[in-house]
């Protein structure tokens, strides 16, 4: 599943490809991919003639900022991918899993592919974006400017459940998924089952720093390729070579040498070192 680093890498790739292009038409091949009460033909027509002024991102959502005050919000969910094709490279046959094609006035295309059909598109005025994300209760972006330690620690104190699922629900901080939660908890030396409210200020501080660091390094590496992830330029991310625990079951811990173990936490496969990440600090 694309997590924040993969979505940010997609944003950067799309920004290179489509910024400044004007939409000629939008073809929808699976109606449910669009979340709207509007007739789909009218929905597509709303996009015609709009220029993509820039590409933004909020948490795991991509935002096409369009001319005349409109925004197209795209959530990739599990398997969503974008592929941009110059006019002379457009495939002759539409791919089986391509569910939306945006054709630009210069003849190039942006194709949205989604094997599992979980991704969604929503169209709205740019003035509604802030309320849209506020309603989803998405936490701050994982940057030093937005993600403050004291606020994070105060929020942890109100949560009784385990720290891993608490981080996954996006309310404490935006953009964390399974891979990067495991990596951040390992870096901070915190057991995934530790109740969030039991974290000391020192632990919260380590975790806060680890979240910012892990996600920043993953963005720099272009994301993590596990199975099928590619960015909008068709390039694979490389952060998988830096993974300390995720997918490393039975491999030696890079810190202490003990085999990495795997368990299920909140229905998610979870990788950790039982030595470096004790459930209770001594």
UniProtKB/TrEMBL annotation:
Transmembrane segments: none annotated. Binds 1 zinc ion per subunit. The active site is at 2 (schiff-base intermediate with dna), 3 (proton donor), 60 (proton donor), 268 (proton donor). Residues 244-278 form the FPG-type domain. PROSITE patterns: FPG_CAT, ZF_FPG_1, ZF_FPG_2. SUPFAM superfamilies: Glucocorticoid receptor-like (DNA-binding domain), N-terminal domain of MutM-like DNA repair proteins, S13-like H2TH domain. Pfam families: Fapy_DNA_glyco, H2TH, zf-FPG_IleRS. InterPro entries: DNA_glyclase_Znf_dom_DNA_BS, FPG_cat, FPG_Glyclase, FPG_N, H2TH_FPG, Ribosomal_uS13-like_H2TH, Znf_DNA_glyclase/AP_lyase, Znf_FPG/IleRS. GO terms for molecular function: 8-oxo-7,8-dihydroguanine DNA N-glycosylase activity; class I DNA-(apurinic or apyrimidinic site) endonuclease activity; damaged DNA binding; double-stranded DNA binding; zinc ion binding. DNA binds at residues 97, 116. Its cofactor is Zn(2+). It catalyses: 2'-deoxyribonucleotide-(2'-deoxyribose 5'-phosphate)-2'-deoxyribonucleotide-DNA = a 3'-end 2'-deoxyribonucleotide-(2,3-dehydro-2,3-deoxyribose 5'-phosphate)-DNA + a 5'-end 5'-phospho-2'-deoxyribonucleoside-DNA + H(+); Hydrolysis of DNA containing ring-opened 7-methylguanine residues, releasing 2,6-diamino-4-hydroxy-5-(N-methyl)formamidopyrimidine. Keywords: DNA damage, DNA repair, DNA-binding, Glycosidase, Hydrolase, Lyase, Metal-binding, Multifunctional enzyme, Zinc, Zinc-finger. Its EC number is 3.2.2.23, 4.2.99.18. Residues 2-119 form the Formamidopyrimidine-DNA glycosylase catalytic domain. Belongs to the FPG family. Monomer. PANTHER family: FORMAMIDOPYRIMIDINE-DNA GLYCOSYLASE. NCBIfam families: fpg, PRK01103.1. Involved in base excision repair of DNA damaged by oxidation or by mutagenic agents. Acts as DNA glycosylase that recognizes and removes damaged bases. Has a preference for oxidized purines, such as 7,8-dihydro-8-oxoguanine (8-oxoG). Has AP (apurinic/apyrimidinic) lyase activity and introduces nicks in the DNA strand. Cleaves the DNA backbone by beta-delta elimination to generate a single-strand break at the site of the removed base with both 3'- and 5'-phosphates. This is Formamidopyrimidine-DNA glycosylase. It comes from Eremococcus coleocola ACS-139-V-Col8. The lineage of its organism: Bacteria, Bacillati, Bacillota, Bacilli, Lactobacillales.
């Amino acid at each position: 599943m694309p997590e924040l680093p993969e979505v940010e890498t997609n944003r950067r790739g799309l920004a290179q490809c489509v910024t400044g292009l004007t939409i000629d038409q939008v073809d929808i091949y699976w109606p449910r991919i669009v979340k709207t009460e509007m007739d789909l033909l009218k929905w597509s027509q709303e996009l015609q003639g709009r220029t993509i002024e820039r590409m933004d991102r909020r948490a795991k959502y991509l935002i096409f900022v369009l001319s005349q005050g409109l925004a197209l919000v795209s959530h990739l969910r599990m398997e969503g991918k974008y592929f941009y094709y110059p006019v002379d490279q457009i495939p002759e046959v539409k791919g089986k899993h391509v569910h939306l094609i945006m054709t630009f006035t210069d003849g190039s295309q942006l194709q949205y592919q989604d094997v599992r059909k979980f991704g969604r598109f929503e169209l709205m005025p740019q003035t509604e974006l802030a309320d849209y994300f506020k309603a989803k209760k998405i936490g701050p972006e994982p940057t030093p400017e937005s993600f403050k330690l004291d606020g994070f620690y105060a929020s942890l104190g109100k949560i009784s459940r385990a720290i891993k699922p608490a981080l996954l629900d996006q309310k404490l901080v935006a953009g964390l998924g399974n891979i990067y939660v495991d990596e951040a908890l390992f870096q901070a030396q915190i057991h995934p089952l530790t109740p969030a409210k039991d974290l000391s200020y020192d632990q919260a501080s380590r975790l806060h720093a680890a979240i910012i660091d892990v996600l920043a390094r993953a963005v720099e590496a272009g994301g993590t390729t596990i199975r099928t992830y590619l960015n909008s330029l068709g390039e694979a991310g490389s952060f998988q070579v830096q993974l300390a625990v995720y997918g490393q079951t039975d491999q030696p811990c890079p810190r202490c040498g003990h085999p990495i173990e795997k368990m299920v936490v909140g229905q998610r496969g979870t990788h950790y070192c039982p030595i470096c990440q004790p459930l209770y600090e001594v």
